[in-house]
Write a structure and sequence with these properties.
about 425 residues; alpha/beta; Helicase, Ruva Protein, domain 3; Rossmann fold; Arc Repressor Mutant, subunit A; 4-stranded antiparallel β-sheet; 16 helices; globular; disordered N terminus
């Protein structure tokens, strides 16, 4: 099922007239003409020397961390904003600048991807391994790992900066934040500073008040890129990643317009660009045009949806599954249309989605959450672009939230049912 959803959509399965049963060798594939110059620079993970339109944010991070170069402890920082707004790139960019001064300071940074290291134990294990590469931390308990980390910071006098990317993914987050922020009370030399990065604008509200006050000493929000900014970013990467004159300016403009209309997500823009290049190569074309960008959009949308949905917590997946089920079930439920019969998109009421969510919670043996948490889940699903919501207008009894799914409900349903079956069988 997953393979079907993630398959790249190619318009022509046999562009060069080869036999259907013909299988090329790697040498033949590598010798084919390509419009790519350097695919790596088109990756969302590539950190360019200059990050357009993030100069102020980068300066803010540098100012916040500069005390570490004077052997003083910086204050904790919190960076948040929607996916693809340059948060991680900007922080890593500053980490690179900080590393250039390592010979003249005790500043040291440790980057932790909290999707991978999603518990207090795993995060501290990662930090300890970063500080002491020769130590095999496998099998060590939390207390012993903590002591080894503290002893290294204390004995070396390090100003340790721990970057917790997607910090909201840590299951026992309050415990982790309490452990790392209170660690400084035990240090006579050296310090531990945290930089939390989150895509969720409402993330802070879920923290314990003590954790919130300690982590969010300094905070900033990364705003989504505008269409003009995305156009400049795509042009910069296209010039570095593709051969000269191989990308139409109109294709760059179209990619920027698509991404700006979605969410201002630069990562989406780069995925769109590299997929369009792959399609052009597959067809044997020498240029990326509007057609390749449009074809790439369908494939990228599926990839992005799969990635976003697969990493959602269980209850958010259940809410989204409920929306998908109701969207597919046109006969049973009262649906509110946009007023345009030719459009298939329609809205569901918040109440009927919550009822369906309660049913799905029982079906999958999960204790249902309260209406308050349900509203938070809707906010987070909307922030990820998985749903759209509006407030009802006149003509309805009272006011309610109207919900529309953002991707084909059949695809969403398949992804979630596969994820939940894997989780429940584990």
């Amino acid at each position: 099922m997953g393979a079907t959803l993630l398959t790249l959509i190619f318009p022509n399965r046999n562009p060069r007239g080869a036999r259907e049963d013909y299988m090329p060798s790697f040498s033949e594939i590598l010798n084919r003409p390509t419009i790519f110059l350097d695919r790596n620079v088109l990756s969302p993970h590539y950190i360019p020397e200059t990050l357009p339109f993030r100069e102020k944010e980068i300066e803010w991070i540098m100012n916040g961390l500069s005390p570490a170069l004077r052997n003083e402890r910086p204050r904790n920082m919190f960076v948040y904003g929607k996916t693809g707004t340059g948060k991680t790139c900007s922080v890593k960019h500053v980490m690179g600048k900080l590393a250039q001064h390592k010979e003249n300071s005790n500043a040291h940074s440790c980057y932790v991807n909290c999707r991978m290291y999603n518990s207090r134990y795993r995060v501290i294990q990662k930090i300890t391994k970063e500080l002491l590469p020769s130590v095999d931390s496998m099998g060590f308990g939390l207390a012993l790992l903590y002591e080894k980390m503290m002893e290294e910071v204390r004995s070396s006098g390090r100003q340790l900066i721990v970057v917790l990317d997607e910090v909201d993914m840590v299951k026992d987050l309050d415990d982790l934040l309490y452990t790392l922020t209170r660690a400084n009370d035990e240090l006579q030399k050296g310090s531990i500073t945290l930089i939390g990065i989150s895509n969720k604008l409402s993330f802070k509200e879920q923290l314990d008040p003590r954790s919130r006050s300690s982590l969010c000493e300094n905070e900033t929000v990364f705003a989504p890129y505008t269409a003009t900014q995305l156009q400049a970013i795509i042009s910069q990467r296209a010039a570095m990643g593709f051969k000269p004159n191989s990308v139409d300016e109109s294709a760059i403009n179209l990619a920027a317009a698509i991404c700006a209309s979605e969410s201002g997500d630069a990562r989406y823009a780069l995925k769109l660009l590299i997929k369009a290049g792959e399609i052009a190569d597959y067809k044997g074309a020498s240029r990326i045009t509007d057609k390749e960008v449009d074809e790439a959009r369908r494939s990228v949308d599926i990839d992005v949806a799969f990635e976003a949905i697969s990493t959602l917590p269980d209850h958010q997946q259940l809410v989204l599954l409920s929306i998908a089920n109701l969207a597919l079930d046109k006969g049973k439920n009262t649906r509110l249309t946009t007023g345009k019969p030719e459009e298939e998109d329609s809205f569901l009421t918040s109440g009927e989605v919550y009822e369906e969510y309660c049913k799905n919670s029982r079906r999958h043996r999960k204790p249902r959450r309260s209406a308050r948490w349900y509203r938070e889940y809707l906010n987070e699903l909307e922030m990820l672009g998985l749903i759209t919501t509006i407030e009802s207008g006149h003509g309805m009894r009272g006011r309610t939230r109207l919900i529309r799914i953002g991707y084909p409900p059949s695809d969403v349903k398949k992804i979630i049912e596969q994820n939940l079956s894997i989780i429940e069988s584990a």
